C-alpha cells in the first residue's frame, strides 16, 4: 500500500516543531508500524536527510519504550497493543496517517516523536517499592501464603509497562491509571501493607508535583492502555489514599 | 597471561561458603568512600546496582533506555529456575547443578554452576519479599512449571511475563536507592569506553544520548552487565538497541572474550515473513509444556498446506509427524533448546516446512485443550460433556497460562492460535559466550567485572530454559556484592579517582574521534545496510550448523563488509544532538569485529557441543546417528581470546575444564 505520513518534527526540546508530510510506497500489510517507520527512515538516510527520531526497543510490546500518538490515539487504532505491535493491516492503501509524540505538560518533547517520561521515574522513586534488603536474608517464599485471587489481581496491576499512553489519552493528562496500578500491586499483597500509608501519600504527592492533571472519570486511559490496566486500580488508589489520610 | 579461574579449594558443596568466610570485607564507614560504576540495568546490572548501593557503596548506573525498567530482561517470558523442591519431585541443589552442567554440554565451569544452583532458592525468597507477584496455586503457595531438558518442575513464573516482574522487582530496589541518593542514575547514556589507570579499571567514557555530550565518570571498579550480542545476526529476539559495545570495548582494552561461537538459537519463535523484518519474536519455551510440535508426514500434505488447499487441522493423527516425540521419546517436546532447534531445521531442510518460506513447523495445543477440558469437566462434575464443552473448558485453562502469548501471536500473524496450530521456527535468542570472568566475576582487567548474559560463565555451550533470569539475579544480588568487596578492600585509602588525567584524556579523544569520523564520513550506505549484510553471513555460515569451509568464508566476508563499512557508511545529523543513526553506527562497527572473532572461534572448535553444531562432528551410526558428537579429549576447555588488533589475529588462551563432581557423558535425551 501507499501512504502519506504527517509527522511531527522538532529538532530539540527548545525548538519549535511542525508537521511534515512524507510519502511511503509498497508497504506490506504484514509489516509492523515501526517497520514502516524503518522504511521511511532508510529512505530519508539514503537521500541525506535526518531520519525521524522515535523511541522503541524490544518491539514485542513489553519494554514500554515506544510512544507514538497515531491518528489521534496513543499507540494507534488497534486495541491492547503498543505501537510496535500495531500492524499495517489496520490501515488502507491511500491513507493519510498523522503521527505525533505523546502530548502532556509532564512529558516534554526531546526530539521529533521522543518524549521525556522522567516524571514516571520520580513517582516510583517516591515510594514504588517495598523496603526490604536485597541481601537474601529473607524468610522462605512459601511462608507467606497469598490467595491466588489476590496474587492474580496484583499481577494484573503489575503488568503496566509505564509507557504513558494513559497520560497521552487523558484530556487532563492525568497519571492516575499509572500510579493506581503501582499502588494497587503493593496494596493487594501482604508484603506491601507495612508501608501502605506512606507509599500512597508520597506517590500521589509526587504525581501532583509533576504537573499531571486530575482524573474526571472519562475512562479514556483504560481504553487506550496496551496492557488493559483496569480503572478499578484508580478506585483502589483513591480508597488507599483516603484511608491513609484518615490514619494521618 | 595464564588464565587463573581462582576457584576456591575444597569440596564443591563448601567452596562458596568457605570463600565467603575468608574474603576481606569493607567496613560500612569505608564503603561510603568507594564508587562503583554499573553499566546496564537489566536483571544483572539492576540487581547489582541496588545491592551495592544498599551495602553503602556510591553507585553510578548507566542505561541507554530512558528507564532502567526497559532493559531487555523485561522481555523474558517463561520463568526462573530455583531448587526449592516445593513440588516434592526430587529436586535439589545438586540436581539443578547437574542439569545445568549437562544441559550446557559439559562446557561450563563446575564451581560457578554449583554456586548458581546454591543461591537459586534464595532468589525466590528475595523476589517474593520485594512483592513480585509469582503465580500461586489455590492453596496460596507458589506454583511451578517445567522447562526443557529437565525432569522436575522447578520453574517459578508470573504468567508469560516473568522477566518483566523480576526486572520490576530489581528496579523497585534500585528506586529505593535512587531516592536515598545512593544510586546516581544515568538514563539515555551509553558507555563508549573503559578507562584504565595503572592497570585497573577506574572509569568510563559515556555519551549522553540526548545532548551528545561526552562525559567522564570515575570509580574504583567498573561492572559491565550489558547483555548479550545476539544482534550480531541482525535478526534476533533481542531488543533493537541490544548491543555488544560495552563488552567489546572492555575486550579491546584487555578483557578476554570467551566462547563467542556459543549462541542459543531458540526453537519457538514466530517465523520471519519478509525482508523488511526488523526483529523476531519469541514464544516462550513454556509453551512446549502443553504444545506438541509436528510437521506433516507426507510431502503431498506439505504442498497442499503451503498452497492453501488443506488446513493443518484437516490432517489426522497418523498423517502427522511429531518428530520430537518420535526421535526423543524420554524428553519429547521438552528436549533442550539446541536439540529442538536442530530437529526443526532438519525437517525444514528436508522440505517439510509448513509456510511459504518453508521455514516453519507447527506447535499444536489441541491435545492440551482436550486434556485440560476433561480434567475441568471432572472437577466441575459435568457428566458426558460435549466436545465443544471440553474444548471450551480446556481453552480457558490454556488462556490463563499463556493468554498473553496467544494474543501476541495473533497480533503478529493474524491467525487465531486457539483454532489453528501456531507456526514457529528457531531464531537467535541468547549468547552463552561473553567476556571471560574468574570465580569472582572479574575479567582479565583488574577491577572490571562482568555479570549476567554479558559474561560467559554458567551456561556452557547451551543454556537451559529459565536459567538466564536465575543467573542474572544470582550474579547481581548474591555473588558480585561479596566478590567485589574482596577487591575493593584494598581501595579504602585510595580516595576519589580524578578524571582530569591523561588516561581519561586519551580515552575521551578516542571516543570523540570515532564519533566525528562517523558524522563526517558522508558515505552512501546506511548503517542498517551493513548490519543486514553481516547478519546474513552470520545466519548462513555461523548459524544453527557450521562447517570449516563456511566459517573460513564467513571470516573473509565479514572482514570485507567491515572495510566497506568504514569507507562508505552514511550517518546523517550531528554529534551534539540526539542521533539514533550515530548510536547504531558505533554498535554495528563493534558487531563487525565481534562477528569475525565469532567465526574464528567456531572454526577452531572442531567438535559439536550445545548450540555449536559442527557438521564434521556428528555421530555416524548407532542409536545416536546424526546427533551432535562432542570431543572431550581435545575440546573440554574454555576458549578465551585476547585482542590483538584485527579479530583474525586474536590469540587463544585455554582454561581447561575439570569435572570432578559430574561424569562426562554423551548428552542423550532419547
TrEMBL record, chain A:
Keywords recorded for this protein, A-Z: 2Fe-2S, 4Fe-4S, Iron, Iron-sulfur, Metal-binding, Oxidoreductase
A Pfam family that the UniProt record links to this protein: Fer2_3
Xref: InterPro entries: 2Fe-2S_ferredoxin-like_sf, 2Fe2S_fd_BS, 4Fe4S_Fe-S-bd, Beta-grasp_dom_sf, Helical_ferredxn, SDH/FRD_Iron-Sulfur, Succ_DH/fum_Rdtase_Fe-S, Succ_DH/fum_Rdtase_N
An example Gene Ontology molecular-function term: metal ion binding
GO biological process: respiratory electron transport chain; tricarboxylic acid cycle
Iron in keyword set: yes
Transmembrane segments: none
Domain 4Fe-4S ferredoxin-type as annotated: residue spans: 151-181
Obligatory cofactor(s): [3Fe-4S] cluster; [4Fe-4S] cluster; [2Fe-2S] cluster
Taxonomic superkingdom: Bacteria
Family classification: Belongs to the succinate dehydrogenase/fumarate reductase iron-sulfur protein family.
PANTHER family assigned to the protein according to its UniProt record, in alphabetical order: SUCCINATE DEHYDROGENASE, SUCCINATE DEHYDROGENASE IRON-SULFUR PROTEIN
Protein name: Succinate dehydrogenase / fumarate reductase iron-sulfur subunit
The organism's taxonomic lineage, starting at the top: Bacteria, Pseudomonadati, Bacteroidota, Flavobacteriia, Flavobacteriales
Automatic annotation (TrEMBL), chain B:
Localization (cell): Cell membrane
Top-rank taxon: Bacteria
Residues annotated as catalytic: 337 (proton acceptor)
EC number: 1.3.5.1
Family annotation (InterPro entries): FAD-dep_OxRdtase_2_FAD-bd (IPR003953), FAD/NAD-bd_sf (IPR036188), Fum_R/Succ_DH_flav-like_C_sf (IPR037099), Fum_Rdtase/Succ_DH_flav-like_C (IPR015939), SdhA/FrdA/AprA (IPR030664), Succ_DH/Fum_Rdt_flav_su (IPR011280), Succ_DH/fumarate_Rdtase_cat_sf (IPR027477)
Residues annotated as transmembrane: none
GO MF annotation list: electron transfer activity; flavin adenine dinucleotide binding; succinate dehydrogenase (quinone) activity
Any single biological process term in GO: anaerobic respiration
Membrane topology designation: Peripheral membrane protein
Alphabetized Pfam families for the sequence: FAD_binding_2, Succ_DH_flav_C
Fumarate reductase/succinate dehydrogenase flavoprotein-like C-terminal domain location: 531-669
Signal peptide (from-to): none
First-listed, main subcellular location of the protein, grouped into a coarse class: membrane
GO CC field: plasma membrane
Cofactors demanded by this protein: FAD
Reaction(s) the record says it catalyses: a quinone + succinate = fumarate + a quinol
Enzyme class: oxidoreductase
Entry keyword set: Cell membrane, Electron transport, FAD, Flavoprotein, Membrane, Oxidoreductase, Transport
Domain FAD-dependent oxidoreductase 2 FAD-binding: 35-469
Family the UniProt entry places it in: Belongs to the FAD-dependent oxidoreductase 2 family. FRD/SDH subfamily.
PANTHER family membership: SUCCINATE DEHYDROGENASE 2 FLAVOPROTEIN SUBUNIT, SUCCINATE DEHYDROGENASE FLAVOPROTEIN SUBUNIT
NCBIfam families linked: PRK07573.1 (NF005749), sdhA_Bsu (TIGR01811)
Name listed for the protein in its UniProt record: succinate dehydrogenase
Organism: Winogradskyella pacifica
Amino acid at each position: 500500500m501507499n501512504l502519506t505520513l504527517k509527522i511531527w518534527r522538532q529538532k530539540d526540546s527548545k525548538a519549535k516543531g511542525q508537521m511534515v508530510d512524507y510519502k511511503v510506497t509498497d508497504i506490506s500489510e504484514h509489516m509492523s508500524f515501526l517497520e514502516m517507520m524503518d522504511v521511511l527512515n532508510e529512505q530519508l538516510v539514503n537521500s541525506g536527510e535526518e531520519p525521524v527520531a522515535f523511541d522503541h526497543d524490544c518491539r514485542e510490546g513489553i519494554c514500554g519504550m515506544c510512544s507514538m500518538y497515531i491518528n489521534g490515539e496513543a499507540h494507534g487504532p488497534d486495541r491492547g497493543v503498543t505501537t510496535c505491535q500495531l500492524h499495517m493491516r489496520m490501515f488502507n492503501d491511500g491513507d493519510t496517517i498523522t503521527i505525533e509524540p505523546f502530548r502532556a505538560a509532564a512529558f516534554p518533547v526531546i526530539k521529533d516523536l521522543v518524549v521525556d517520561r522522567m516524571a514516571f521515574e520520580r513517582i516510583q522513586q517516591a515510594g514504588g517499592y517495598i523496603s526490604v534488603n536485597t541481601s537474601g536474608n529473607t524468610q522462605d517464599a512459601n511462608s507467606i501464603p497469598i490467595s491466588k485471587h489476590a496474587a492474580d489481581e496484583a499481577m494484573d496491576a503489575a503488568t503496566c509497562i509505564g509507557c504513558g499512553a494513559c497520560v497521552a489519552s487523558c484530556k487532563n493528562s492525568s497519571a492516575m491509571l499509572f500510579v493506581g496500578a503501582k499502588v494497587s500491586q503493593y496494596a493487594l499483597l501482604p508484603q506491601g501493607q507495612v508501608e501502605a500509608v506512606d507509599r500512597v501519600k508520597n506517590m500521589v504527592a509526587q504525581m501532583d508535583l509533576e504537573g499531571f492533571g486530575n482524573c474526571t472519570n472519562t475512562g479514556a486511559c483504560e481504553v487506550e492502555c496496551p496492557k488493559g490496566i483496569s480503572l478499578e486500580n484508580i478506585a483502589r488508589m483513591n480508597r488507599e489514599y483516603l484511608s491513609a489520610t484518615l490514619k494521618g | 597471561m595464564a588464565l587463573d579461574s581462582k576457584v576456591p579449594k575444597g569440596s564443591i558443596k563448601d567452596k562458596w561458603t568457605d570463600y565467603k568466610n575468608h574474603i576481606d570485607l569493607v567496613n560500612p564507614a569505608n564503603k561510603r568512600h568507594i564508587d562503583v560504576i554499573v553499566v546496564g540495568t537489566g536483571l544483572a546490572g539492576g540487581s547489582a546496582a541496588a545491592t551495592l548501593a544498599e551495602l553503602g557503596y556510591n553507585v553510578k548506573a548507566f542505561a541507554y533506555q530512558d528507564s532502567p525498567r526497559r532493559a531487555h530482561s523485561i522481555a523474558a517470558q517463561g520463568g526462573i529456575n530455583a531448587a526449592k523442591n516445593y513440588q516434592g519431585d526430587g529436586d535439589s541443589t545438586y540436581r539443578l547443578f547437574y542439569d545445568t552442567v549437562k544441559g550446557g554440554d559439559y562446557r561450563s565451569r563446575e564451581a560457578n554452576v554449583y554456586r548458581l544452583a546454591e543461591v537459586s532458592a534464595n532468589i525466590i525468597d528475595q523476589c517474593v519479599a520485594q512483592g513480585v507477584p509469582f503465580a500461586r496455586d489455590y492453596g496460596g503457595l507458589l506454583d511451578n512449571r517445567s522447562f526443557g531438558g529437565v525432569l522436575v518442575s522447578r520453574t517459578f513464573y508470573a504468567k508469560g511475563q516473568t522477566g518483566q516482574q523480576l526486572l520490576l522487582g530489581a528496579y523497585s530496589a534500585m528506586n529505593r536507592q535512587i531516592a536515598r541518593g545512593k544510586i546516581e542514575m544515568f538514563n539515555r547514556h551509553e558507555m563508549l569506553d573503559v578507562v584504565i589507570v595503572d592497570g585497573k579499571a577506574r572509569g568510563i567514557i559515556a555519551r549522553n544520548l540526548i545532548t551528545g555530550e561526552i562525559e567522564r565518570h570515575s570509580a574504583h571498579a567498573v561492572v559491565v552487565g550489558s547483555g548479550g550480542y545476539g544482534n550480531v545476526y541482525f535478526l534476533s529476539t533481542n531488543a533493537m538497541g541490544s548491543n555488544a559495545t560495552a563488552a567489546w570495548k572492555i575486550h579491546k582494552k584487555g578483557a578476554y572474550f570467551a566462547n563467542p561461537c556459543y549462541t542459543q538459537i531458540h526453537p519457538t519463535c514466530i517465523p520471519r515473513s519478509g525482508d523488511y523484518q526488523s526483529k523476531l519474536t519469541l514464544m516462550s519455551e513454556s509453551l512446549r509444556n502443553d504444545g506438541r510440535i509436528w510437521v506433516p508426514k507426507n510431502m503431498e500434505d506439505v504442498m497442499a498446506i503451503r498452497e492453501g488447499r488443506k488446513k493443518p487441522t484437516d490432517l489426522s493423527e497418523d498423517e502427522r509427524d511429531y518428530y520430537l516425540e518420535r526421535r526423543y521419546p524420554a524428553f519429547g517436546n521438552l528436549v533442550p533448546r539446541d536439540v529442538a532447534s536442530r530437529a526443526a531445521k532438519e525437517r525444514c531442510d528436508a522440505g517439510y516446512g509448513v509456510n511459504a518460506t518453508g521455514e516453519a513447523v507447527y506447535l499444536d495445543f489441541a491435545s492440551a485443550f482436550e486434556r485440560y477440558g476433561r480434567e475441568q469437566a471432572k472437577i466441575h462434575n459435568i457428566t458426558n460433556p460435549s466436545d465443544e464443552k471440553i474444548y471450551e473448558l480446556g481453552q480457558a485453562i490454556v488462556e490463563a497460562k499463556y493468554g498473553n502469548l496467544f494474543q501476541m501471536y495473533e497480533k503478529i500473524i493474524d491467525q487465531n492460535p486457539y483454532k489453528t496450530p501456531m507456526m514457529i521456527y528457531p531464531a537467535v535468542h541468547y549468547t552463552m559466550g561473553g567476556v571471560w570472568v574468574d570465580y569472582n566475576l572479574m575479567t582479565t582487567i583488574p577491577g572490571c567485572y562482568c555479570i549476567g548474559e554479558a559474561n560467559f560463565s554458567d551456561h556452557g555451550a547451551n543454556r537451559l530454559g529459565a536459567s538466564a533470569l536465575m543467573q542474572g539475579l544470582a550474579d547481581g544480588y548474591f555473588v558480585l556484592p561479596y566478590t567485589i568487596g574482596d577487591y575493593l578492600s584494598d581501595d579504602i585509602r585510595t580516595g576519589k579517582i580524578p578524571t582530569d588525567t591523561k588516561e581519561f584524556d586519551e580515552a575521551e579523544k578516542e571516543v570523540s574521534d570515532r564519533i566525528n569520523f562517523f558524522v563526517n564520513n558522508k558515505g552512501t550506505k546506511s548503517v542498517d545496510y551493513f548490519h543486514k549484510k553481516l547478519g546474513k553471513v552470520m545466519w548462513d555460515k555461523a548459524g544453527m550448523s557450521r562447517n570449516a569451509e563456511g566459517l573460513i568464508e564467513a571470516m573473509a566476508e565479514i572482514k570485507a563488509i567491515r572495510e566497506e563499512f568504514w569507507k562508505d557508511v552514511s550517518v546523517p545529523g550531528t554529534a551534539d544532538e540526539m542521533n539514533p543513526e550515530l548510536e547504531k553506527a558505533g554498535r554495528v562497527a563493534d558487531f563487525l569485529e565481534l562477528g569475525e572473532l565469532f567465526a574464528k572461534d567456531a572454526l577452531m572448535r572442531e567438535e559439536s557441543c550445545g548450540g555449536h553444531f559442527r557438521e564434521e562432528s556428528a555421530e555416524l551410526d548407532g542409536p545416536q546417528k546424526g546427533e551432535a558428537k562432542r570431543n572431550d579429549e581435545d575440546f573440554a576447555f574454555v576458549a578465551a581470546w585476547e585482542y590483538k588488533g584485527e579479530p583474525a589475529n586474536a590469540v587463544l588462551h585455554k582454561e581447561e575444564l575439570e569435572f570432578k563432581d559430574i561424569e562426562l557423558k554423551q548428552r542423550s535425551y532419547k
